């Protein structure tokens, strides 16, 4: 998904593409090839399944939560408490977001998805301050990306919630984590 996000960012920053956009909704097809990508406007509007996209945010939040617990438990070294406390505060925030996502899924979609989804875990090893900060970046960045991906396909009330989360996580990464890097 990160590669597709790169292409989308590249496309929307092109003046010639931006000049073709209108106030009316438009759908585009992006075909990724070995040489790059091709973009074509679709004849009909594509429908996005906002429930499936919201499920992806739910899964990403749970995965980030689990991985932050690993960093929390495996923190070590002279600055152990810094990474231990930071990761704990972050996974506590995620627990609140997961609860909200579960409630949103039931409200908007009628149910939550099965929780036996494949989950990618970070290595179980000791995390000193710098390796812990690096792990946090690895854990949180994809979560931010998934929220960004889901954002345009949600109603404005859900977008407001996602805005708050994006602000929180971007501040964590770009201010608190970056500010402690060696």
Structure, explained:
The chain has about 180 residues and is mostly helical. It contains six helices and two strands. It has a two-stranded antiparallel ribbon.
List the helices and strands and how they pair.
Layout: H1 2-12, H2 15-18, E1 28-33, E2 36-41, H3 50-73, H4 80-109, H5 129-150, H6 156-180
Short description:
This protein is mainly alpha-helical and about 180 residues long. It has six helices and two strands. The protein has helices at about 1-10, 15-20, 50-75, 80-110, 130-150, 155-180, and strands at about 30-35, 35-40.
The amount of beta strand, in percent, is 5-15%
**Which structural class fits the helix and strand makeup?**
mainly alpha
**How many β strands by DSSP?**
2
Shape: globular
State mean pLDDT (0 to 100 scale): 88
| Main β sheet profile | 2 strands, antiparallel
Radius of gyration: 19 Å
Number of helices: 6
Order of helices and strands: HHEEHHHH
Between the first and last Cα atoms, what is the distance in angstroms?
Answer: 30 Å
Contiguous runs where pLDDT drops below 50 for at least 5 residues: none
* Percent range of helical residues: 55-70%
Arrangement of strands in the largest sheet: 1-2
Structure keywords:
182 residues, mainly alpha, two-stranded antiparallel ribbon
